[in-house]
Amino acid sequence: MSPHRVAFIGLGHMGRPMARNLHAAGHPVTAFDLSDAARAEAQSDGLAVAGSLEDALRDAEVMLTMLPAGKHVLSVWREALPQLKPGTLLIDCSTIDTVSASAAHDLARDAGFASLDAPVSGGTKGADAGTLTFMAGGEPEAFARARPLLEAMGARIVHCGAAGAGQAAKICNNMILGVSMIAVAEAFVLAERLGLSAQALFDVASTSSGQCWSLTSYCPVPGPVPASPANNDYRPGFAASLMLKDLGLARDAAQASGATTPLGQHAHAIYEAFVDAGGGEADFSAIIRRLREGGTAVG
Length: 299
Ligand code: NAD
Prior knowledge:
Oligomer: single chain
Number of domains: 2
Bound molecules: nicotinamide-adenine-dinucleotide
CATH topology of the largest domain: Rossmann fold
Strand order of the largest sheet: 3-2-1-4-5-6
Number of helices: 13
Largest sheet: 6 strands, parallel
């Protein structure tokens, strides 16, 4: 593997461990974040840290962004593009709306650069362990160049198709996840009312047609799956606020594309009510608490 000089922009919960893994795999990383605290943490990880975006981009062969939302990605890419050396590859690993993802690809293409959207699943644990799944969209040549870098941060790398296909895969997957978690939680609430034990429901559903990841990995009641956040007072895991963000992206994409996603929209409303009531920091499986209580968006 030939090392790539990477400018890594965005050193938050995900970006910091991802940058660390790239560095550990032998890629020279220069990291930048607007936050002084994030830069100091990256420095304590042994990364080269730049004091400005411009300094981070000097000599970069790849610019990788891991930022909160589409507006941040577009703003950094707009500022960066005039400063990049010819041939630099741009990779965005953030989870962003499909419209901004297309706009970012257009900006890069118009300036003569190759680009890839490559959002991830696996959360902070996967980022730490270097076991993320990457879902990539872009030209095959861009994907081939990015692959060794993504392999340094992930265990599963999937080329989903043309520009934007990675973001599309990410939000479709997470819409399934949000809807299926609510379905699983509803079943446990109904079972409680019917006098059926959680373990009995789990034993049947986990080996029957109700089987799904929300049940077998993130079971929303304590007991049947010892490692699920329900056994740890619903500490994330995958925070409900992030699920709400992804369901919002799915809803926006459905509106923009004319797709009909009634359950995705209802799941968004249920998570929105939960987050508005203060549940945003809890794991998304804690939605079972709201379903037990009942609530306006649920009724
Ligand atoms: P975070 O808020 O912890 O980190 C984002 C970082 O970007 C912050 O440190 C912030 O200071 C920095 N930043 C913002 N604007 C900037 C700019 N203009 N220039 C430089 N730095 C800037 O977020 P996170 O949890 O690391 O998530 C990053 C992305 O990954 C999001 O799109 C999120 O949806 C996605 N994601 C997160 C998880 C998760 O479990 N946290 C899982 C999968 C995907």
